[in-house]
Design brief:
The chain is mainly beta. 12% of the residues lie in helices and 60% in strands. The strands form two sheets. Strands 3, 4, 5, 6, 7, 8, 9, 10, 11, 12, 13 and 14 form a twelve-stranded antiparallel β-sheet that branches. It has a two-stranded antiparallel ribbon with strand order 1-2. The longest helix is centred in the first third of the chain and has 19 residues. 18% of the residues are buried.
Length: 204
């Protein structure tokens, strides 16, 4: 009897897991649990370069506690060069200062899954005339980094506040989304590590 029960469990488990990754008929793998709306559940900190005449001085570490709202929804699938098949989640990220509830960061992008090659891509833009593409191995915990030519920016940003590198670690656990990221900048004539981290809970 025990052997029979074990055999049934082995048959059911993979099927259930596969079903849980399907959204609107598309297999999103480890990204599937993200579909919905998420809000900050613990302290989140942004460390960015201070402005001229700010309390930390030009280029000093300006620390801002914040909260955010992220929404993920199914976008579409696509095939690249007749051989790479991708499915994409569109996402919207809005970040607000705790001190006055003002929005200081708005980000729109796609998290893209390549099942065959076990890869995830984060392709996004921010309204500073900067766009970033990062990539890494898929999983419930993954690190995505910008490859060579992974950043596009305006002539002004390239000259005055260029992005030199980007890396982001994401962990997806049930209804919890954990992330930390570092954006390497060259601003005010020196390097600066712009960092953000947060823990979000799924609200719907």
């Amino acid at each position: 009897m025990k052997k029979t029960i074990l055999s049934i469990a082995l048959i059911i488990s993979p099927f259930t897991f596969a079903q849980n990754t399907i959204v609107n008929g598309l297999d999103f793998g480890p990204l599937a649990p993200l579909v919905g709306t998420w809000k900050t559940s613990a302290s989140s900190i942004d460390v960015s370069p201070g402005r001229i005449n700010s309390s930390v001085g030009k280029g000093g570490p300006a620390v801002s506690p914040f909260y955010e709202i992220r929404t993920f929804e199914v976008a579409a699938d696509a095939t690249n060069a007749s051989e790479q098949y991708l499915v994409a989640l569109y996402y919207k990220q809005e970040v607000f200062r705790k001190s006055d509830n003002s929005k200081f960061h708005d980000q729109r992008g796609y998290l893209i899954y390549d099942k065959k090659n076990d890869m995830v891509y984060n392709s996004y833009c921010v309204p500073r005339a900067v766009c970033v593409l990062a990539e890494g191995k898929a999983g419930s915990k993954m690190t995505l980094t910008a490859p060579k030519r992974g950043v596009a920016e305006s002539s002004f940003m390239n000259k005055s506040a260029t992005t030199t590198d980007f890396s982001m670690t994401i962990e997806i656990k049930d209804d919890t989304f954990i992330y930390s990221q570092k954006i390497g900048l060259n601003i005010y004539g020196k390097p600066f590590a712009h960092t953000d981290s947060g823990i979000l809970k799924k609200v719907k």
